[in-house]
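Researcher: Let's do a round of design. I'm pasting the structure tokens now; please hold your answer until I've finished.
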């Protein structure tokens, strides 16, 4: 008889873990509280508009290709992908820059700002390429359960080049003087939920992902990746139970025996928790079976939460890009308000995705689909309609000013999503959007472990455990935890 695995949650990590375990011959059932898979990457459909609710940047295409290849498939078997050019636009205080897909064109832009910087960029990127390759081959697929995992001769030889002990900020500033170049090279680590000064320079591998690997778009939106993984899972025989809210895990003799939902109970030989780690520990397990104390959790540095707005317009805009970063206000103040003072930001940076620029299936003809994201500190209270509207008016004004066209009078669809929704919809600890900040002290063996220390057959996957936040790491997380399960069961 096949061994039974229950996976809690059908986000990218839960889907990935489920597929790897089904491939290994297990009977896999995924329990998901929502009506559809995808978790933070769910889809919102309204008035003919189709919004990706969470992730919108598709980086590291090799990770997705590798994932599907593990099952003898290709990305193109499930969705079609195109590279965006320009990759994205940055609005500065008084003008903007389009970041081209071509490295030669990027070199010219850098050279214009800072003579000599194009040669430095080549050196910077060849270091970043080394880190990316070493990271992929030697680091991210480790379960992070013991330092011995990293006792690898090639890794130790390259340790100095991996720049684990210096900060991203220091690393970038060693090479470049111009503030715009610095900001372009420091921005990708914001995806990791920490400041460049607190992020190990190892993560300049993200610059390789950005500037060499490129920014891609799956037709239909990021949700096409969810659909692809869900289809693959069903092809492998994974069973899905949607609208199944898990309310407890029954443990006896240090083993999880049953997973309890609002409707029924499911027997399990092994459980993989793909929902928010803190929620599983603190809400689904009895106190005696928790690996970490509430005090320990309170000491963690969380990646930001965010305010999100899904906006449909009854007209097309001119001269806008698929991805736009608004770096038109001082970064430092906003960063302080996210990580240090942890208050509502006074003048936040924000990001806009306009998928309808590249895809005519996500908005009605002649209409535009806009997604606004304002990063804010995790754990903030009071994101009521009034506060959300106040922030929306402010960023809207800046958007209109920079793009030189009015949109307020063209809005025919509007939804918002805030910290309290992250808690309500995803049981997210402090309403975090991207999990834990990737600081050195919260990396690898210092992350919440992918195997429970108290319950032998309980494992974890997802953005709060190894390797960390983001869609590609979540895919990897599912594979890593499946391997751990198969080592012991
Ligand atoms: C706004 C936003 C923008 C982002 N942008 C990007 C981006 O551009 N590129 C990128 O790579 N990454 C991005 N990320 C990060 C990326 O989306 C996440 O790291 C990733 O989706 C996390 O996947 P996960 O499987 O770990 O968690 P989740 O997606 O949260 O999945 C957990 C699942 O568990 C379910 N669940 C929770 N509680 C229960 C319960 N009690 N019973 C049953 N099921 C339950 C949830 O409904 C959910 O489906 C973004 C995230 C957000 C929020």
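Researcher: That's everything. Go ahead.
Model: Designed sequence:
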């Amino acid at each position: 008889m096949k061994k039974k695995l229950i996976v809690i949650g059908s986000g990218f990590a839960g889907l990935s873990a489920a597929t790897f375990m089904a491939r290994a011959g297990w009977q896999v059932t995924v329990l998901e509280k929502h009506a559809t898979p995808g978790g933070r990457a769910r889809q919102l459909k309204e008035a003919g508009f189709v919004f990706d609710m969470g992730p919108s940047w598709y980086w590291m295409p090799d990770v997705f290709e590798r994932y599907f290849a593990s099952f003898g498939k290709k990305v193109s078997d499930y969705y079609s992908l195109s590279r965006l050019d320009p990759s994205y636009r940055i609005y500065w205080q008084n003008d903007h820059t389009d970041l081209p897909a071509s490295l030669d064109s990027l070199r010219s832009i850098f050279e214009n700002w800072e003579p000599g910087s194009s040669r430095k960029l080549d050196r910077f990127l060849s270091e970043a390429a080394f880190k990316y390759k070493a990271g992929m081959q030697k680091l991210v697929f480790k379960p992070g359960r013991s330092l011995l995992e990293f006792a690898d001769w090639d890794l130790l030889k390259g340790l100095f080049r991996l720049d684990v002990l210096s900060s991203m900020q220091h690393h970038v500033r060693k090479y470049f003087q111009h503030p715009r170049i610095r900001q372009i090279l420091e921005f990708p680590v914001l995806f990791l939920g920490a400041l460049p000064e607190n992020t190990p320079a190892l993560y300049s591998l993200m610059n390789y992902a950005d500037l060499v690997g490129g920014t891609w778009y799956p037709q239909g939106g990021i949700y096409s990746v969810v659909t692809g993984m869900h289809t693959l899972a069903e092809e492998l025989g994974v069973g899905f139970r949607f609208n199944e809210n898990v309310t407890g895990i029954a443990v006896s003799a240090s083993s999880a025996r049953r997973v309890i939902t609002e409707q029924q109970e499911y027997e399990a030989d092994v459980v993989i928790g793909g929902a928010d780690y803190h929620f599983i520990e603190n809400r689904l397990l009895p106190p005696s079976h928790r690996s970490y104390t509430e005090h320990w959790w309170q000491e963690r540095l969380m990646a930001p939460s965010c305010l999100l707005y899904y906006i449909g317009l009854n007209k097309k805009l001119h001269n806008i890009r698929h991805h736009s970063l608004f770096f038109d206000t001082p970064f430092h103040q906003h960063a302080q308000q996210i990580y240090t003072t942890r208050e509502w930001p006074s003048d936040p940076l924000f990001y806009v995705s306009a998928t309808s620029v590249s895809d005519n299936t996500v908005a009605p003809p002649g209409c535009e689909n806009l997604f606004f994201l304002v990063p804010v500190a995790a754990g903030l209270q009071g994101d009521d309609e009034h506060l959300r509207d106040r922030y929306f008016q402010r960023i809207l004004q800046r958007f209109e000013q920079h793009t030189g066209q009015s949109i307020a009078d063209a809005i025919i669809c509007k939804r918002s999503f805030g910290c309290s929704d992250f808690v309500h919809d995803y049981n997210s600890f402090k309403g975090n959007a991207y999990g834990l900040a990737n600081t050195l002290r919260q990396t690898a063996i210092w992350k919440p472990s992918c195997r429970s220390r108290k319950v032998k057959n309980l494992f974890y996957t997802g953005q709060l455990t190894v390797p960390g936040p983001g869609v590609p790491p979540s895919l990897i997380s599912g594979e890593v935890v499946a391997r751990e399960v198969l080592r012991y069961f």
